[in-house]
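Researcher: Let's do a round of design. I'm pasting the structure tokens now; please hold your answer until I've finished.
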């Protein structure tokens, strides 16, 4: 056992499987119609991630975009064959709050059935693009339940300029009958929720901050953490997009060359498993 973590609390490791040109922050700069003309890098990045996880004996949940799964079915099967959980990131990466309920429901149903056809397993988890579910669109939870998912991980209870629901619960709760919400982790400091679950903060801030945060969730809150990252975050050679405003560009490209080593430290310093095994009772396959 790792000496830094006295109790064996297992944390949830998750990956949002999408390519560098599909991120919500680039949405107004990249035409969806051009996606098929862009060089794709997601499959080689996922292979590197699968190797990294295997080297550390870590299992994870892969919230996979339907658009990507359709073009990379062999990659989806490799994820499943390695013992990881295949979950859904919707089909076309539209934010929930930008859509009508019917359109949103169609998108998340389409992704679920495609991923189930490819994997031969029930897909229980869903994560909304850009954590776009919260108090302003409660109907989205009704749709997620209606589509047959068992859990969602679509709320980041922080204050952020593009997303966030700072008043939402910090730890898993039943949001609809039979549907759990598993929020991305935060640490509570001076009555404020600070991000502790990955994303740009993991690259921007020193690794020690992430280690302190996960430790605090395990030791002080005595809960499992929920951590996430994207395959493009380990890829410092990805093509640079043109015409991106300075702040967005900084957030996307900062410290890409350091992420892989940081992830290796995170995998070594804590215990990790799939979200279903960590949070859903009796779900350990
Ligand atoms: Zn996404």
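Researcher: That's everything. Go ahead.
Model: Designed sequence:
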């Amino acid at each position: 056992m790792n000496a830094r973590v006295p109790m064996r609390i297992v944390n949830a490791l998750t990956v949002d499987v999408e390519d560098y040109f599909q991120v919500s922050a680039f949405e107004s700069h990249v035409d969806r119609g051009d996606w098929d003309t862009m060089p794709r890098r997601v499959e080689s990045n996922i292979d590197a991630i699968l190797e990294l996880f295997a080297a550390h004996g870590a299992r994870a949940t892969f919230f996979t975009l339907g658009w990507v799964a359709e073009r990379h079915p062999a990659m989806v099967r490799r994820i499943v064959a390695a013992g990881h959980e295949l979950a859904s990131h919707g089909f076309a990466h539209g934010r929930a709050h930008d859509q009508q309920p019917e359109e949103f429901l169609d998108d998340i149903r389409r992704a679920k059935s495609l991923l189930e056809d490819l994997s031969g397993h029930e897909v229980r988890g869903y994560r909304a693009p850009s954590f776009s579910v919260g108090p302003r669109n409660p109907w989205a939870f009704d749709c997620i339940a209606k589509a047959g998912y068992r859990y969602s991980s679509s709320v980041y209870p922080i204050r952020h300029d593009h997303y966030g629901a700072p008043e939402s619960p910090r730890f898993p709760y039943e949001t609809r009958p039979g549907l759990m919400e598993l929020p991305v982790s935060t640490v509570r400091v001076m009555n404020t929720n600070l991000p502790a679950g990955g994303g740009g903060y993991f690259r921007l801030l020193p690794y020690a901050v992430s280690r302190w945060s996960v430790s605090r969730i395990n030791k002080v809150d005595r809960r499992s953490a929920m951590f996430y990252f994207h395959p493009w975050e380990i890829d410092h050679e990805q093509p640079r997009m043109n015409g991106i405003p300075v702040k967005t560009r900084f957030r996307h490209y900062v410290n890409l060359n350091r992420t892989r080593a940081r992830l290796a430290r995170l995998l070594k310093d804590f215990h990790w498993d799939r979200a279903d095994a960590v949070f859903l009772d009796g779900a350990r396959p």
